[in-house]
Amino acid sequence: MKRPSSPLLSAIAASVTTAAAMVSLTLVGGLPASAGGAQAAPKGGGAQQLGDPDYGVCRGTDARCHHDWGNFDPAKGYKILVYSRTAGPRHANLGPVLPAGLNPPLTDANVAQKALVKLGADNGFAVDWTEDVAQLATPQKLFAYNAIVFMSTSRDTLDDAAQTSLRQYIRGGGGFVGVHNAFGTEYNWPWYEGLLGGANFYDHGPSQPGTVQTVDRKDTSTAGLPSRWAFTDEWYNLVPFPSSVRFLAAVDEKTLTKGVRGSQGHPGHGSFHPVAWCQYYDGGRSWVTTLGHDAKAFTDDGTGFAGAKEFRSLLLGGIESAMGKKPFCR
User: Fold this and answer.
1) Alpha-carbon distance 264 to 272, whole Å?
2) Amino acid 11: pLDDT
3) Residue 113 host element (H or E)
4) For the chain, which terminal residue's Cβ has fewer other Cβ atoms within 10 angstroms, N or C?
């Protein structure tokens, strides 16, 4: 998949250097700029855009950035909404475009959506799904869900009403999970870029096997994962580089035998190339991963597609923590 071309982004990519990721917490509501203890990339690690973008919200790993305004009652159980609308390239694991409405029929080709429905059924939370932007039109609709999952959405997948609704939902303490091409979505909306951790998709190298390193094994989403595990993906390169987040997993670029240089010339992220992280953002919780390209990652039992079991464990933990069912970004 290619990001829309931009002379500015091309210039940024050309100037990328192997420097540590800058970490800060945006000052909102009286919180100190140093709060949160967010993890930075190791010195000499990730490539980045110089500077730390200011998204005008409270963000980072300090739980004081979360709003607990009573919008979610655990006694009512837990439910997520899987949103997979594409307004540009569509990943094969999404299958054919879904009809309008909530919970339209799924075919066997709608692999990722069906896998998330099963994940919920197996782990005690309800799952609705849609590609109808009208289902996101009001915060009242979204507050029925403990988390919203953007499953490989693409390009301008939200209209103005849905953008406003999503922002109000997050400000009300809602959870967000972004999977794979959620990073190829809403390029021209800075608030959404911040929701992704102040990061965005730039390009990727060849889809190939690699080794994922579990950077933080104390988080809900990484608990029980091995320190290193095999996986195959497109290994997204990012501009900007994530900031003010807790890094959870990274790919060891030395294991990528086909190289990491992207189609638009991004050189990769050197000694620290993150693939999953979490943060509090503008009142809500955000857990994201760049992984999830191959359909087999969602369905294989781990014997034929290396790392499928670990990927689903990572994703399950991310969903459960983002919706408040388990501790978040601890």
Assistant:
1) 20
2) 38
3) helix 111-123
4) C
- Report the predicted TM-score, pTM, of the whole model to 2 decimal places: 0.87
Tokens of 293: 């390209």
Phi and psi at residue 158, to the nearest 5°? -120, 140
Note the pLDDT tens digit of each residue in 242-301: 999 999 999 999 999 999 999 999 999 999 999 999 999 999 999 999 999 999 999 987
Closest residue by Cα to residue 321 from 125, 154, 115, 185: 125
Residue indicated by tokens 């996101």: 136
- CATH fold, domain 7-68+75-322, is Rossmann fold (3.40.50)
Q: What are phi and psi of 250, to 5 degrees?
A: -145, 160
Buried-exposed string 263-291: b where 16+ CB fall within 10 A, e elsewhere: ebebbbbbbbbbbbbbbbbbbbbbbbbbb
Locate 170 and state its tokens: 């997050």
CB-based contact 151:93 (threshold 8 Å): no
Q: Please classify residue 4 by burial: count the beta carbons closer than 10 Å to its beta carbon, then call 0-12 exposed, 13-18 middle and 19+ buried.
A: exposed
Q: Which amino acid is at 98?
A: L
Question: Where does the pLDDT of residue 21 fall: very low under 50, low under 70, confident under 90, or very high at 90 and above?
Answer: very low
Question: Do residues 82 and 118 make contact, with C-beta atoms less than 8 angstroms apart?
Answer: no
Indicate if the alpha-carbon torsion angle 224, 228, 231, 236 is positive or negative.
Answer: positive
